[in-house]
Design a protein that fits this description.
2 domains, alpha/beta, Spore Coat Polysaccharide Biosynthesis Protein SpsA, Chain A, two-stranded antiparallel sheet, 11 strands, globular, 44% helix
Length: 307
């Protein structure tokens, strides 16, 4: 019996989940394999049920990524849990990640590759965001000037992804963690709903407790990226991303840092909203945007962490 459980959270993932599960069955035979489906409206549950030795947990509503991960962990018993996105497929076994866990790492990231075989530089491995980093993200500066020093440090553009290392924030798309480490920090924070920043927050809380995080390029997965996010409309995508960014800032930054992020988030969203309204005449986008402006205001004036 394997000491590894694999958890895949799905949402309208029918086009990709079959290849993901087939790769898990091929490279990790004997592992507990659980799919937590967040009320997909396509054929995802049917595709999952067609694979042998895969347990499906079919939620009747979208409870969010973090809650689905916690649900999957509770449904398994193995000491090591591999979190894998449905748009990823294993190209190797994950045993090098498990070995790092046996040596004491609380979490381990593996190497993510694009479909053409190139490494997903800037995504597979990152450092924790600072307030300045998130200010640049919120304002879109990192997109316009990707080689700026803050972005290079944040996205580990100075690191060779073929070299193992102590890590801060490996991508949640291909992340193994020890069950006892997950328990020590109380699991994933379900307030990051429905998506974004929950894996960053999880790794930050591990590090804050002195729990080691490693990166190993010996475990490789091919990752398409963003398949569920692409189905969101503009307003929902902005609302979820800015909302989770502000939640992270509220938990982990001191008041002055948090306020910088709040101001830049309001300015960045305001600019995006103006472009959306002028370019596409999308007046309905104002409603979710107003919710984020209110959240930014509440986070700005909070005196203490919202953790």
């Amino acid at each position: 019996m394997s000491d590894t459980a694999i958890i895949v959270v799905t949402y309208n993932s029918a086009a990709l989940i079959g290849a993901c599960l087939d790769s898990c069955l091929a490279h990790e035979p004997g592992a507990e394999l659980v799919v937590v489906d967040n009320a997909s409206q396509d054929r995802t549950p049917e595709v999952v049920r067609s694979r042998p030795h895969v347990r499906l947990i079919a939620n009747t509503e979208n409870i969010g990524f973090a809650a689905a991960v916690n649900q999957g962990v509770r449904a398994t018993t193995a000491p090591y849990i591999l979190l894998l996105n449905p748009d990823a497929r294993l190209l190797t076994s994950a045993q090098s990640m498990a070995e790092e866990c046996r040596k004491g790492a609380g979490a381990v990231g593996g190497k993510l590759a694009n479909p053409d075989g190139s490494a997903q530089t800037g995504f597979a491995l990152r450092r924790f965001p600072t307030a300045a980093t998130l200010a640049f993200e919120a304002l879109g500066i990192n997109r316009l000037w990707p080689n700026n020093p803050l972005n290079r440090r944040y996205r580990c553009l100075d690191h060779d992804l073929d070299a193992p290392c102590e890590a801060e924030q490996p991508a949640g798309a291909f992340l193994m963690f020890r069950r006892d480490a997950w328990q020590a920090v109380g699991g994933f924070d379900q307030a990051f709903h429905p998506v974004w920043f929950e894996d960053v927050d999880f790794c930050k809380r591990l590090k804050d407790r002195g729990i080691s995080i490693r990166y190993t390029p010996a475990a490789v997965a091919c990752h398409v990226g963003g398949h569920s996010v692409k189905s969101l409309d503009w307003a929902d995508r902005q609302g979820y991303w800015y909302g989770s960014l502000l939640r992270y800032a509220g938990k982990h930054f001191r008041p002055a840092q948090r306020r910088l992020v709040c101001v830049c988030s309001g300015a960045g969203l305001g600019l995006r909203l103006l472009m959306q309204m002028v370019g596409k005449g999308d007046l309905a986008a104002m409603i979710p945007a107003l919710r984020i402006f209110r959240l930014a205001g509440r986070t700005f004036w909070k005196r203490t962490s919202c953790a």
